[in-house]
Inverse folding.
């Protein structure tokens, strides 16, 4: 029976995330301390106290989610009761792929957090230079979503970019095209069209400038392809084979669709039977229930969840 560690992406942040864990476990507190030193400001304070608007900004939410997820992971790694819990494979949703790579040993904490910080800053800059948005389409299959995008685009950028779970596909593109898609969605049979509170058209060519910035940052980082723990890539649903593949995929991710549902389906097909979502929120746990109702997933996003796991494994 294979085990997978899953890590959340942007949108999972909440004020107070990691606070109780850092208070209870020195290993988690140390992660936040190291994170502050790397990013050069009090990231811990924003995670623990907010304000919400600041935490939700792309430049801060990305390093904040990475740091909080790493803090939960560190507790699992260092507590005697849970230290034997090791994944056969890791996966992360978009931003979460950096945590997955760190968890698998592909990059150091410092390099991973530095990259995440650069990624957030570059994506915000690209968003400021373009006028983009994203909309979650509920209740449509891929073909219908593509037809909706085709009609609503009117020559502008608009495409399906996040394949989260059956009946939930996120589209991304110019603000006007997203607004048209929102209005037309019901015509195509959608149950709902929900505009997302994001800075721009993530995972489209409107993020190309961010990709170039990220490429430069990646060239300064040491990336190794993990030997013992597999990592599955969002962009092509394949396990990484080389460090070059990792570097290229992380850049491509900014302008390419995130195939989360397909990644989970592949992990299930390849024999993963136990999943742990590690980090703030329960987004991936919710998506898992929609992808495969019977999948065994444990959510590790609170002090209570960690304590319960420690108790079970003692």
């Amino acid at each position: 029976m294979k085990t997978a560690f899953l890590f959340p992406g942007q949108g999972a942040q909440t004020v107070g995330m990691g606070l109780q864990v850092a208070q209870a476990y020195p290993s988690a507190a140390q992660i936040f301390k190291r994170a502050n030193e790397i990013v050069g400001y009090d990231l811990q304070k924003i995670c623990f106290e907010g304000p919400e608007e600041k935490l939700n900004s792309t430049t801060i939410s990305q390093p904040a989610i990475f740091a909080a997820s790493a803090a939960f992971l560190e507790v699992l790694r260092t507590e005697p009761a849970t230290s034997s819990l090791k994944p056969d494979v890791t996966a992360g949703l978009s931003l979460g792929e950096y945590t997955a790579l760190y968890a698998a040993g592909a990059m150091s904490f410092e390099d991973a957090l530095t990259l995440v910080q650069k990624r957030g800053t570059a994506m915000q800059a690209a968003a400021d230079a373009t006028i983009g948005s994203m909309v979650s389409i509920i209740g449509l299959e891929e073909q219908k979503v593509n037809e909706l995008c085709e009609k609503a685009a009117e020559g502008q950028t608009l495409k399906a970019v996040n394949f989260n779970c059956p009946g939930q596909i996120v589209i991304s593109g110019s603000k006007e095209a997203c607004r048209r898609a929102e209005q037309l969605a019901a015509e195509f049979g959608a149950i709902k069209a929900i505009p997302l509170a994001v800075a721009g058209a993530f995972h489209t060519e409107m993020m190309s400038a961010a990709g170039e910035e990220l490429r430069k940052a990646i060239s300064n980082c040491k990336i190794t392809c993990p030997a013992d723990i597999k990592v599955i890539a969002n962009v092509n649903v394949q396990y990484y084979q080389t460090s070059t593949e990792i570097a290229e995929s992380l850049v491509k991710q900014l302008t390419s669709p995130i195939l989360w549902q397909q990644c989970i389906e592949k992990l299930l097909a390849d024999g993963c039977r136990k999943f742990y979502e590690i980090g703030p929120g329960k987004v991936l746990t919710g998506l898992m229930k929609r992808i495969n109702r019977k999948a065994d997933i444990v959510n590790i996003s609170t002090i209570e969840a960690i304590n319960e796991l420690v108790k079970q494994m003692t």
